[in-house]
Design brief:
The chain has a seven-stranded mixed sheet with strand order 1-9-8-7-6-2-3, sandwiched between helices. A four-stranded antiparallel sheet has the order 10-11-13-12, with helices on one face. A two-stranded antiparallel ribbon has the order 4-5. The protein folds into two domains: about 270 residues, Type I PLP-dependent aspartate aminotransferase-like (Major domain) (Aspartate Aminotransferase, domain 2, 3-Layer(aba) Sandwich); about 100 residues, Aspartate Aminotransferase, domain 1. The chain starts with a helix and ends with a helix. It is built from 16 helices and 13 strands. The chain is of the alpha/beta class and about 425 residues long. It is globular and about 80 Å long.
């Protein structure tokens, strides 16, 4: 093991041995290299002759680039062409940390790490797996989940996904969640995704404390827990009584045996899917700046060893937009559009005739909702009928149909629901 990794591990062990214990073998071995090329390049910065950095530089010291881009990008050259740090641009990281506190007032002054920039949420999940999942480790997720979880946790990192039924009696299945946690011996890795993809469900205020208590009980039994929190759709809540902050807030102060790992970013919050910028942030009870610094260095090392760094241009564009006087108004306008589409699908589904063929699963937030077909219907056959005869595309999971109401104009949502009904009727008549 490299001495730089050893030094970080010793620092983590001194500050909170539980955090060291939940690190995977990769996580224990990783470090951000402060010697070698990066160190020598930093020492040469500003010198009259600098032959260290792996970039092409013009004679005047500016970044070499094709002039065609000057017509397309209205940013300083240094915000576009050079490599960004593997940690991410410091000003953007600081802004995002401040925004976490602003969006989550119940977090108060709880110390958390400075976010590390990832290449979107998917990369953030991959980095979290790199840091915390060894081959054979169990990862607990709801039975309704985004398929990338399996690709990352199981296919890429050889973990074992164990699921629990997400819903019970029309709400979050706290009992099933608690029982599944209880069944795991040793370290627990769990993934919490609210609003949930594919169901569009966020726990109610009355449920969130029960979820936290279930995790607390496991810590009280001496288990170390890594709670990975996928906050991709954060802020998109459309109903009263729903928990509008991140569960990261409560888990960051819960126990010295519970490490909260927040994955979030502007992809959905700021409608920039193609920018591929995300963040990974740590919180743990009695976490210190020294502990978080060690975890930030390991995480940045994992980023460097994986993709080197995230797009400088994307980070710069975001940082610039966040200080635009139009930013908040624009964001509210987009939220209002999504909320209107949510209300439209709620209204459309209220027609009792649809219960002949399907019923909606609970939903209150995010981009999606799911309908469950009755047992006489076959979702894949319905999906194909919708494509062929009704010019309508949907996603199928087992006997569920996922609808991305986020992608459908408000005026077309009644037709979306009606087309599913008509396709179900057509299937029934054919069989």
């Amino acid at each position: 093991m490299d001495k730089q990794a050893t030094d970080l591990n010793e620092a983590i062990q001194k500050l909170n041995t539980n955090v060291l214990e939940v690190l995977s073998e990769r996580g224990k071995n990783i470090f951000f290299p402060k010697l070698g090329i990066l160190s020598q390049s930093a020492q040469a910065k500003g010198k009259n002759i600098n032959a260290t950095i792996g970039e092409a530089i013009e004679d005047d010291g500016s970044s070499m680039h094709l002039s065609e881009f000057d017509k397309l990008i209205n940013l300083p050259l240094g915000s576009v062409y050079p490599y960004a740090p593997s940690f991410g641009k410091k000003e953007l990281r600081d802004y995002w940390k401040e925004s976490i506190y602003r969006k989550n007032p119940s977090l108060g002054s709880t110390p958390i790490s400075i976010p590390i920039v990832t290449s979107g949420l998917t990369h953030g999940i991959s980095i979290a797996s790199y840091m915390f999942v060894d081959e054979g480790d169990t990862v607990i997720i709801p039975d309704l989940f985004w398929e990338n979880y399996s690709l990352i946790f199981e296919n890429a990192f050889k973990g074992k996904v164990v699921t629990f039924p997400l819903f019970k009696n029309g709400g979050f299945n706290v009992d099933g969640f608690s029982d599944t946690l209880d069944s795991i011996k040793g370290k627990i890795v769990l993934m919490l995704n609210f609003p949930n993809n594919p169901t569009g469900y966020t726990p109610l205020i009355s449920e969130i404390g029960l979820i936290v208590n279930a995790i607390q009980k496991q810590a009280d039994k001496g288990k170390n827990i890594v709670a990975i929190i996928d906050d991709a759709y954060f802020g998109l809540v459309y109903e009263q009584g729903v928990y509008t902050e991140s569960i990261f807030n409560q888990l960051s102060t819960l126990s010295e045996k519970v490490l909260a790992v927040k994955l979030d970013g502007p992809t959905k919050e700021d409608y920039v899917w193609g920018f591929r910028v995300g963040f990974i942030t740590y919180g743990i009870k009695n976490g210190t700046a020294e502990l978080y610094d060690a975890m930030e260095n390991k995480t940045a090392g994992a980023v460097r060893g994986n993709i080197s760094n995230v797009s400088n241009l994307s980070q710069s564009l975001l940082y610039s937009a966040y200080f635009s006087p139009q930013y908040e108004a624009d964001k509210k306008e987009k939220y209002d559009t999504l909320n209107a589409r949510y209300q439209a699908i709620i209204k459309a589904l209220s027609d009792t005739k649809y219960s002949e063929y399907f019923n909606a699963l609970p939903f209150n937030s995010g981009y999606f909702m799911c309908i469950e077909l009755n047992n006489t219907l076959k979702a894949e056959a319905i999906r194909k009928l919708l494509l062929e005869n009704y010019s309508t595309g949907v996603i199928v999971f087992g006997n569920l149909i996922r609808l991305a109401f986020s992608a459908v104009p408000e005026s077309k949502i009644p037709a979306l629901v009606e087309n599913i009904y008509l396709a179900c009727a057509e299937f029934k008549n054919q069989n």
